[in-house]
DNA sequence: ATGAACGTTCCGGAAAACGGAACGCGGTGG
DNA sequence: CCACCGCGTTCCGTTTTCCGGAACGTTCAT
């Protein structure tokens, strides 16, 4: 009974299981936009060719992928069904959709809804204006939490210890990623920006993630006051000048609060965290 | 070179792999609407409790599920990201979305887009009218191909041998499923209805799937003339009387054609299959 | 013709998934 | 008060699958 067991029970990170790999293949497939070749998937995911091949065939066998012309693969119907069901699973997106469309109409800019995923923000729903200019943001896309307005909004609404943990995790991979020269890379400056965000009730992204693009965003909270997502408005810098930011900021704040109340959030949390006028609360 | 091949390559159905099971757990999770308990998932999927437990934890570890209050689980952020990306992956849905909204506005009824998945139609996108009445149709939901207008539309646009194969597969599980007394269960009657569908260019569902609900639908084809989906309009029987069916039918036909041309479909296929006025073509 | 890249198949070693059985727990009803 | 039940969880030996290096056939562009 000396308990030889496995001497390395504590670390279960390194060796990822088959489902995770299959999922990565699926993600690569879905994120590609169009049909995708095997080699390309192997390159993107970092998996070996045989592994990708096997998983791809397994996925195709159960309907999550389907062969396309030229030996390529594309997302299968079962994945689309799962996707539609998943996006409908939570009440947040259903509530957010009409709010986004309203925001887009009133601002003439791109309105979007994002949820937190580890140290990143995942963009779920976009409501695009008629204009044809294309931004790097797309459905399913991710940005680090500190480089986007929605990310900053979510960070600002996190309890302090959690926010610190996220920040620490972001710093683990060397310095903070900086997609543009304007990105906030200094933890101190970031904290100051978060404090300003809490004070005014909405976050501002001044070309932190993409040149010539600014955004404003506000967090969406559930009934328990936890962050479930954020609503943002993005536009080119000349369209989102300081005056417009001052107008759109309160609008996204109101929009986010509308979704939050729809989720059953009591006025208490919302006043404290998203409202930003009562100096009380929190410590 | 006698081509010994693998003698048992044909049957790989029986033993489902881990990824498939994990996917079923995910589907159960996503389709549930709200948070879901472990036992409930085990019951729905037919998997044993330990298996579900392990998969659920694995999925939670890589972000596809997340624990909710009361020991329940809900869809995780990574699944939502994958879902958003998947729904954006094909050009068909992007094209269909505005068309659906236009259809809903002009008909005042529920407009939807579905894709084929085996012997079923998977509903991906709904554009719901202001009214509050609820139908059984929901995002990610499925209906057998022969019990819905979108299904009949897709069946009618399939090459004859493929359509026959689907029909045979449907008949494998005993008789054709019949959700309502009006459902077409006789293969002969079904074939006749498909012929009528091809002739007029749109399919009609006269309470085949749900009592008091009628629908019209037309198939969407890709550049090669293959079926990729269908656009339908559904409403209560009193709202979709014969006169309205005669009006809405050509509207969904035009809508489906618009999406098809957007996919690069040449006028040739569309005229033959979806147009329905040129008496030429198809034997 | 030569070379490179691609998709595919093969194989032995390694690492999971599997489910029956058992455990601790909370609620219910005798 | 104590069976009884259902739940979520853990354990374990057996079975199955996964894994990726290496090699093969093919298809292009050089």
TrEMBL record, chains A, B:
GO terms for molecular function: DNA binding; DNA-binding transcription factor activity. The keyword RNA-binding does not apply. This is Glycerol operon regulatory protein. Residues 78-265 form the IclR-ED domain. Residues 16-77 form the HTH iclR-type domain. Pfam families: HTH_IclR (PF09339), IclR_C (PF01614). Keywords: Activator, DNA-binding, Glycerol metabolism, Transcription, Transcription regulation. Signal peptide: none annotated. Gene3D superfamilies: 3.30.450.40, Winged helix-like DNA-binding domain superfamily/Winged helix DNA-binding domain (1.10.10.10). InterPro entries: ArsR-like_HTH, GAF-like_dom_sf, HTH_MetabolicPath_Reg, Tscrpt_reg_IclR_C, Tscrpt_reg_IclR_N, WH-like_DNA-bd_sf, WH_DNA-bd_sf. May be an activator protein for the gylABX operon. PANTHER family: HELIX-TURN-HELIX TRANSCRIPTIONAL REGULATOR, ICLR FAMILY, HTH-TYPE TRANSCRIPTIONAL REPRESSOR ALLR. One of its GO terms (biological process) is glycerol metabolic process. It comes from the Bacteria.
């Amino acid at each position: 009974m000396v308990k030889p067991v496995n001497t390395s029970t504590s670390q279960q990170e390194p060796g990822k299981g088959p489902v995770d790999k299959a999922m990565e293949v699926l993600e690569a497939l879905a994120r590609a936009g169009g049909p995708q070749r095997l080699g390309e998937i192997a390159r993107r995911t970092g998996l070996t060719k045989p592994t990708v091949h096997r998983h791809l065939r397994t996925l195709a066998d159960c309907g999550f992928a389907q062969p396309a012309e030229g030996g390529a693969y594309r997302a299968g119907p079962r994945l689309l069904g799962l996707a539609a069901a998943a996006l409908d699973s939570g009440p947040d997106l259903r509530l957010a959709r009409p709010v986004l469309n309203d925001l887009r109409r009133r601002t003439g800019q791109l309105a979007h809804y994002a949820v937190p995923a580890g140290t990143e923000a995942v963009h779920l729903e976009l409501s695009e204006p008629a204009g044809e200019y294309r931004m790097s943001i797309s459905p399913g896309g991710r940005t680090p939490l500190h480089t986007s307005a929605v990310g900053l909004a979510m960070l600002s609404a996190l309890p302090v210890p959690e926010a610190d943990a996220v920040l620490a995790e972001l710093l683990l991979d060397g310095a903070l990623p900086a997609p543009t020269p304007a990105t906030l890379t200094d933890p101190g400056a970031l904290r100051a920006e978060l404090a300003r965000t809490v004070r005014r009730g909405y976050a501002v992204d001044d070309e932190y993630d993409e040149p010539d693009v600014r955004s404003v965003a506000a967090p969406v909270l559930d009934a328990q006051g936890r962050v479930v997502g954020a609503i943002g408005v993005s536009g080119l810098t000349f369209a989102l000048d300081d005056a417009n930011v001052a107008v759109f900021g309160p609008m996204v704040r109101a929009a986010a609060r509308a979704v939050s109340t729809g989720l059953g959030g009591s006025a208490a949390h919302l006043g404290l965290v998203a409202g930003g006028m009562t100096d009380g609360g929190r410590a």
